[in-house]
Structure prediction request, 292 residues.
Amino acid sequence: MTTRIDIPRLLRDHARTFALTLRLLPSSLREPLGIAYLLARASDTIADAPRIPADRKLGFLGELETLLADGDPQSWNPGTDGGFSPAEAVLMDSVPDLLRALESLSDRDSICSLWRTILRGQLFDLKRFEPGAEPLSAQELDLYCGLVAGSVGEFWTRLIAKHGSGVLRLPLKEMIRLGISYGKGLQLVNILRDRRADLLLGRRYAQDDDLPGLFDQAEEWLRLGERYLAGLRPGRILMATSLPLDLAVPTLAGIRNSPGDARVSLGRREVRRILLRGVPSLWLSRGLDPAS
Prediction:
């Protein structure tokens, strides 16, 4: 691939845990996943930028939708007038090169479809939370989690089916269903963890009275994530796919135990322990790990 951008460096700057996970995967999965993540991270950075007015955010995301459809990547110019940090500005400037990099990938259409769906979720989020807006209904929360994260579960499953022969142990349709729930569970944990910070941005995903039910919903979706992992053969792909669940489960437990805390997060020692727990799978023979 010919590109002027350093994708591993961008991933290290904007997603250290994901960059580590990416290194665990077979080489055929690293490039499409890395580009897909960075594109989604770019639009997410716009949606969450606290110093950019909502109308400008909507304009930027609308421009990205146009670029995905038929626009010229070179026309993208979000500007550097103080709305982004220096690292975020580098990511914004990299969008044209990331889009050009897509052209040489066999997974281009799948990545574009995924990003288009995520953009729909981000646009829904911005439009829904006007000043004084009510919290999301249960149906709206399910929709939002599905658009921005359930879609990732489906994309990831289809990517495994294409590039990881023999890794899926269950029918593709069943794995997609479980993968969507897994993604929604991870997103709901993030929402529960960040709800205080989101309130400062004018986003109220749920009322405090709804927390017990949301804790239960997150646990249910994560249990389906466990079934998803059981549908993968042991090896690198399973280790990389299980890492988000291994981090989400204790995070959710911490939130449930201390719902009033500003933000529950795992310590470095706990994260390191979780990472080391999966290391033995890296030495599986090729017979046990078809996609190693």
User: Anything to note?
Assistant: The chain has two domains: 7-109, 129-292. DSSP finds twelve helices and no strands in the chain. The two ends are 22 Å apart (CA to CA). Residues 7-109 form one domain.
